[in-house]
Amino acid sequence: MKAPAIDYVRPRSLTEAIDLLARSGGEGRVIAGGQSLVAMMNLRVASPGLLIDIARLPELTAATDEGDTVTLGACVTHAAIEDGRIADPSRGLMPRVAATLAYRAIRTRGTVGGSLALSDPAAEWPAVLSALDAEVLVCGPDGRRSIRCAELMTGVFETTLAADEIIEGVRIPRLSAEACWGYLKLCRKAGEFASALAVVVSDRKRSHSRVVLGGLTARRWCCSKHRELSPRMAAKRSGTPLRPISTVQRTGTSTNSSAISIPSLRCAQCNRCCSDCDPPAGQRCPCRG
Ligand SMILES: Cc1cc2nc3c(=O)[nH]c(=O)nc-3n(C[C@H](O)[C@H](O)[C@H](O)COP(=O)(O)OP(=O)(O)OC[C@H]3O[C@@H](n4cnc5c(N)ncnc54)[C@H](O)[C@@H]3O)c2cc1C
After folding, report:
1. To test ligand 1's pocket by mutation, which of 8, 21, 36 has the most ligand atoms within 8 angstroms of CB?
2. DSSP percent split of the chain into helix, strand, coil, nearest 5
3. What is the pLDDT of residue 234?
4. Which of 121, 154, 173 lies at the terminal end of a domain, its last residue?
5. Do the Cβ atoms of 74 and 58 come closer than 8 Å?
6. Closest residue to atom 44 of ligand 1, CA basis
């Protein structure tokens, strides 16, 4: 199915984009890489009257290295991160993650800002940027504000963003030389969304350590206190058995590992989560709340 006819505009600046969005009376929607939005329009899940194309705005496609932090424009693509075309504050974590995200064709157009705005519970960037303690920089008719990445998502495809706000970028603290990280993505085949994903970042020099689990429940589980990091505590807090992740640990997968394909971990009802979420016949899928 093709998307219905729609008005399209390509503003020349972020200010113009915000103005167009504010004046569209709720009909306007920004489009970045279109990798999710166009599919949603084709399926009639989204029906905006006006598309405001921000993908090529220079202020959204650049990355700025400020020493202690690196700010990525919202329209930096997954491929630019994968290829090392922009500064990496994460000591290799972000390029590794980018390489496991969807397929190369999607990575060349899909953007960090689009992924954060969409807030799919199984998406990589919301989880990884929460683990790195990044801040999402937002711009709207009332000015600028920043939101901790871990606080952006409020539910499945729901965020604290207002309808007339645009993500301008994401400010990521630079990991110290002593920092270490781990990243695991469980999916049936490379290029698919995660059935479950786990990110661990530990940077003693900055007194920062965080574990984020994604894809298991409607909301990511995020923890930054060492005493809460035991699997028992994690299971209690998230309300979700952590079997898929401990299975991977038992196989001896080291930190800094890339995507791992594990068959038959998908929920029969939503085709997203692990088999632990499989509900009895006729009951609502618990992983969708
Ligand atoms: C087959 C397939 C497999 C995929 N696999 C994965 C995967 O494994 N992991 C993963 O993380 N993702 C995956 N994705 C999603 C992909 O990463 C997209 O890049 C991501 O959804 C964002 O797309 P986009 O940047 O093109 O945003 P768009 O599709 O253009 O926009 C998505 C939404 O975000 C809004 N938006 C975009 N930019 C902004 C902004 N700057 N400010 C405010 N709102 C904005 C739009 O209005 C729209 O609502 C997959 C997609 C496909 C089609």
Report:
1. 36
2. 30, 25, 45
3. 53
4. 173
5. no
6. 117
Nearest atom in ligand 1 to 112's CA: 25
pLDDT of 215: 79
What is the domain count for the chain? Answer: 3
- Looking at ligand 1, which atom is closest to the CA of residue 36? 29
Residue 151 CB partners (closer than 8 Å, separation 6+) = 160
Task: Average pLDDT across each block of 10 residues of the chain; the chain has 289 residues. List them in order.
Answer: 89 97 95 96 92 97 96 98 96 95 96 96 94 97 96 89 97 94 87 89 89 73 55 53 37 34 36 43 50
> What is the value of pTM for the model shown?
0.82
Of 173, 207, 242, the one marking the end of a domain is 173
Q: How far is the CA of 253 from the centre of ligand 1 (A)?
A: 29
Same domain, 83 and 167: yes
Residues with CB under 6 A from ligand 1: 29-37, 39, 54, 74, 101-102, 106, 109-111, 113-115, 117-118, 123-125, 166-167, 192-193
d(CA 117, CA 106): 17
- Kindly state whether residues 62 and 152 are assigned to the same domain: yes
The residue range of the domain holding 31 is: 7-53
Task: Pick the atom of ligand 1 nearest to 113's CA.
Answer: 41
Q: Are 160 and 132 in the same domain?
A: yes
| pLDDT score at 241 | 44
Cα 207-210-216 angle, rounded to 5 deg: 175
